[in-house]
Amino acid sequence: LTVFASVISSVDAAAYRVALLTPAQLEAVINYHVLTARYLAADVLALDGQTIPGTDIAVTVVDGSVFVQGAGNTTPIEIIATDITAANGVIHKLAGILLPAGLMNGDATITGTVFDDANFNGTHDGAEAGIADVTVTAFIDTNGNGIQDGAEIPRSVTTAADGSYVIDGLTMSIIYTVTQELPFGVRDTAA
């Protein structure tokens, strides 16, 4: 067997949605993480650009990091630990939850406003103008450094004239880090 085990933070982040699943849907999600064949890391790595045989789970390799993507996921999920030996197979730890087609895919959205925080209180007060044309990026910060780098696949948008942005099509089972590229002379404030 091969088991793709999701990290606890991914499961916790998905808890409110999992509670809405029927028992059959929950079973489908759990079973989607278990393959009847044994695939070591080298086997999965060799499948770059393909699906794992007998499944619809796609494999992508970016800068040496391996990602898998279920048919219901809108973004790839990094394999963060590999070849954990089990009595009847092997376990690979994932940074997210694999989703079969038709379940919870792409329904997460991050919204916000980039604005001139004139009073530096970290809160968008009514009279503070939004800032247009700022690139806002959501990504899975696998190394925890707060910077989108290496194999961390970004999803970016540009703010509208009023400073608002919507990053949609995200997978609800993933914790994203959001950054912004502020114009010269503008600085971040915190609440």
Provide a short characterization of the protein structure.
The chain is an alpha+beta fold and 191 residues long. Helix content is 14%, strand content 31%.
Short key terms for the protein model shown above:
191 residues, 6-stranded mixed beta sheet, 3-stranded antiparallel beta sheet, 3 helices, 11 strands, 14% helix
Q: What is the percentage of strand-forming residues?
A: 25-35%
Strand order of the largest sheet: 2-1-6-5-4-3
Order of helices and strands: EHHEHEEEEEEEEE
Poorly predicted sequence stretches spanning 5 or more consecutive residues: none
Summarize the main sheet.
6 strands, mixed
Q: What is the multimeric organization of the chains shown?
A: single chain
Work out the number of β strands: 11
- Output mean pLDDT: 84
What is the 3D shape? elongated
Given the structure, what is the number of helices? 3
* End-to-end gap: 48 Å
Structural classification: alpha+beta
DSSP helix fraction: 10-25%
Radius of gyration: 19 Å
Write the layout of secondary structure elements.
Layout: E1 2-6, H1 8-18, H2 23-32, E2 34-35, H3 41-45, E3 58-62, E4 65-69, E5 77-86, E6 89-94, E7 108-113, E8 135-139, E9 155-158, E10 164-170, E11 177-181
Parallel strand pairs: 1-6
Antiparallel strand pairs: 1-2, 3-4, 4-5, 5-6, 7-10, 8-9, 8-11
How would you portray this structure in words?
With about 190 residues, this protein is α+β, with helices and mostly antiparallel strands. It has 3 helices and 11 strands; from the N terminus they run βααβαβββββββββ. It has helices at about 10-20, 25-30, 40-45, and strands spanning about 1-5, 35, 60, 65-70, 75-85, 90-95, 110-115, 135-140, 155-160, 165-170, 175-180. The longest helix has 11 residues, at about 10-20. It starts with a strand and ends in a 10-residue tail after the last strand. The model has no long low-confidence stretch (mean pLDDT about 85).
